[in-house]
Amino acid sequence: AIEGVIASQLQAFNAREVDQAWSYASPMIQGLFGSPENFGMMVMQGYPMVWTNGGAEFAELREEGGRMTQTIYLRDAQG
């Protein structure tokens, strides 16, 4: 389920469907950025490898401090 959410959000960013990508963001992230537009702008400006990604490889999933943490190897648009 975790991989599916992450993969869906990455696909939404590639398709520039910011509202859809926002829907996958945690309540904490949504509270921090306040709107899909602010969230999308932050990702576009600060995380270009997420905004336009070439896919992801999912690695270790582990629990840290009562939360699940998924390690991902993300490819940018150039591979």
Walk me through what this model shows.
This protein is an alpha+beta fold and 79 residues long. It is 52% helix and 28% strand. It is built from five helices and two strands. It has helices at residues 2-14, 18-23, 27-33, 36-46, 48-51, and strands at 53-64, 67-76. The chain has a two-stranded antiparallel sheet. A hairpin with a 2-residue loop joins strand 1 (53-64) and strand 2. The longest helix is centred in the first third of the chain and has 13 residues, at 2-14. The chain is globular and about 30 Å long. The model has no long low-confidence stretch (mean pLDDT 96).
| Order of secondary-structure elements | HHHHHEE
Q: Percent helix among the residues?
A: 40-55%
Radius of gyration: 13 Å
Question: Which stretches are low in confidence, meaning pLDDT under 50 for 5 or more residues running?
Answer: none
The assigned structural class equals: alpha+beta
Largest sheet entry: 2 strands, antiparallel
Number of distinct beta strands: 2
Strand content: 25-35%
Overall spatial form: globular
How many helices? The count is 5
Mean pLDDT: 96
